[in-house]
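Hey, can you fold this one?
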Amino acid sequence: MIREKFLKIIGVVMIVSSLSLGVGSLSLAGANAVSADTVSDLKDGVTGSGGGGAKNSSNRLPIVIKTVVNILLFFVGAFAVIMIVIAGFRFVTANGDSNTVSSARNTILYAVIGLVVAFMAFALVNFITRQL
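Sure. Predicted structure:
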């Protein structure tokens, strides 16, 4: 009994830690990416040293908004994946308990709904920032 609980806890810790390492490596992989806006600003002579012209100030707000939304979408996606894994683990280890099964199903449902809402918000923000 105690051994089974210990193995379950170790399994959850291993899954969560491997997901954390995967998410961290993905964020490190994208850390060195240079956007096309940055390259075009550098070609136009905007160095970012405080001499921002009209082009720099008018395009800054949509870029900042898109960056914030992309970061939030990344964290929402990672959190949803972790919640789906935990709910799946609870679903498998429910041993026929109807309350645990329904709770795990609801967790998976809410995580998927959260992903859908996050992607719709992402699409809406991208549409609006393109219009600016």
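DSSP finds four helices and no strands in the chain. Let me know if you want another pass with a different chain boundary.
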